[in-house]
Amino acid sequence: MKRKKVAIVSSFFRHGQWRGIMRCGQKADWICQRFTADNLDRLKDWEPDGILFQIDEYDEPLLEYIHSCDISRVGLRAARGIEDQTPLVLPDLAEFGRQVARHFAANNYRRLCYLGPASDEMSNLGATHFQGMQEVAEEQGIELEGVFLDQRGTWRKLGLERRQELTTGWERFWELGPSLIERLLGYGEPVGLFSAFAEPAMEFIEMLAEHTVEVPEQIGMVAQTEDGLTGTVTKVPLSCIVPDYERQGYQAGNLLGRAMDGEKLAANHREYMSEHQFIVRESSDRMVSSNPEAGVMIDYIRRNFQRRDFSPDAVADMMGCSLRSVQICFQKSFQRGVADIIRHYRTQHASKLLTGTDLRLQEIISKCGFSGPHQFERAMKKVYGMNPSAYRLVAKSQPKKF
């Protein structure tokens, strides 16, 4: 039986996507070859049976080719001009946006900012980061601002001029960054910022340090990355959303295989991939407040919640005031009580130990400051809806590969 030939037509590829496609190709016994604008002339003679494509909106030669080809094709990104004319397997950016917005909201950020190119949002029609963040912002009464680097309006509102030759705008982020810092600080309250890409987020953290801006107290940060390790090498460890790109590549290959075998797929067929990791680190892992006294108390809780004898009274003693005064301050600043926030830090730390270690439950209880198994189980059920053992089992049973 003749082996099918699959052309991978791409302006760029993420390593995970490539691995997923190769896994699918190995299973189906395909012959695969990648083609870019530099070797497109060879593709015309190669005569593939199907095409997987991922083309950015500025790659005219590849866009022209994908518009004109009449064989089975599946995209990992919508191609400009034929967004509704080819089957697509896309990351569910809206779900990622919702996750980030809820994370910031849980840490008391009342103002959010999305940083990314509008053109990249258009490549994921129906499921964009900004749409997901907007849903949560509207639900919770949070302010949300979009900073789209490829839009003239963004540059104008920051007092800058956008040159015509710009593509996504990332190449001039070093120029835009200081003006963005000034704008965000001008709100006079903590801002949670979500960056669509890791590199500008890493650069922005450096800019914030140069401007003596506190992360996450003044500006909290999360970025979408290809690899969770990216966030470990920044000046302030960076919280990361890591899509399962390998699964996306595999699913796209599987869908193309069905099409090449004769299955009729709708031209506007969409599959959204929501699998991801959310790795929370120091850049966003803190309750924030525009009230300096509340900030001091939150920092004290964060540094002491692991003590078993730690309680709301300890916070009042540290501040030299009554517990009632502390409770009033917390209700005004966070709309939550002191005990609730102590429990928040303990359960959050416990969830990391349950999923990231093999520590026994008794050891986790000790490391998180719970008084005993009953308090631990009650807290986990209140926050996550299940007991610690069930939480660990569910988290560790999630498929990582296929």
Describe the structure.
- This protein has 402 residues and is α/β, with parallel strands linked by helices.
- It is 47% helix and 15% strand.
- It has helices spanning 15-28, 40-46, 60-68, 93-106, 118-122, 129-140, 152-157, 173-185, 198-210, 245-260, 292-304, 312-319, 323-334, 338-356, 361-368, 373-384, 388-396, and strands at residues 5-10, 31-35, 50-54, 72-75, 88-91, 111-116, 143-148, 191-195, 219-224, 239-243, 270-273, 276-279.
- Helix 9 links the parallel strand 8 and strand 9 (219-224).
- The protein is globular and about 80 Å long.
The number of domains is 3
Question: Mean pLDDT across all residues, rounded?
Answer: 91
Give the class-level CATH name of the largest domain. Answer: Alpha Beta
Number of helices in the DSSP assignment = 17
Query: pLDDT under 50 segments (min length 5)?
Result: none
Summarize the structure.
It is built from 17 helices and 12 strands. The protein has 402 residues and is an alpha/beta fold.
Keywords:
six-stranded mixed sheet, Rossmann fold, Arc Repressor Mutant, subunit A, 3 domains, alpha/beta, 402 residues, four-stranded parallel sheet, 17 helices, 47% helix, globular
Outline the secondary-structure elements.
Blueprint: E1 5-10, H1 15-28, E2 31-35, H2 40-46, E3 50-54, H3 60-68, E4 72-75, E5 88-91, H4 93-106, E6 111-116, H5 118-122, H6 129-140, E7 143-148, H7 152-157, H8 173-185, E8 191-195, H9 198-210, E9 219-224, E10 239-243, H10 245-260, E11 270-273, E12 276-279, H11 292-304, H12 312-319, H13 323-334, H14 338-356, H15 361-368, H16 373-384, H17 388-396
Parallel strand pairs: 1-2, 1-3, 3-4, 5-11, 6-7, 6-8, 8-9, 9-10
Antiparallel strand pairs: 10-12
Helix pairs in contact: 1-10, 4-6, 8-9, 14-15
